[in-house]
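INTERNAL AUDIT FORM
Audit reference: QA-55
Scope: verify that the stored structure record matches its stored sequence.
Auditor: D.O.
Record contents follow.
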Amino acid sequence: MRSGRPPIWNPVSDLAPHAWTEVVTLASKTRLQLPVAVRQRIPWFARNISGLFAVLESDGSAEVWPWQPNGEDKMRQLALMLGPLSETEQATLAIAAMDKFIRLTCSEDGRTVLPSNLLFHLDAVDAEAVRIVVANQRLWMWSEARWQSLREQRVMSLDQHLSGLPQRSV
């Protein structure tokens, strides 16, 4: 870990330094501050990012990438796909893309404003909290309710792995 408050509440963080999860409450109805522990685990945050690109997934998560080059590349692909289509087809697919892709601003210190469609996707309108997950240099935002609904599966997998280890007598 570099600068920032050490995550002493998380005894596992030193064992898997490229993984992190934390519930982050919204600073206002729409503003999210990505914790230092999150930003330190994602190499592209060290570069001067011009914004973020969120891809909304059907499981209640949104994977987040830097806008350059990811968002720009996806917009070029969409433009090529939409170009030869009829106006009706363009409108239908453009609306579907609006449901899937979102551009976010982001300050150097990890502050971002979540637009309403992302807040609703993450069930953060009333809960006013978002689950942040980092693994393998990738970043996701999750609906906390959906994240918790999968908790039992994650814990069972952990328990299975732990039960296969030799037990140390105390």
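Auditor finding: record pair retrieved intact. The CA atoms of residues 17 and 41 lie 7 Å apart.
Action required: none
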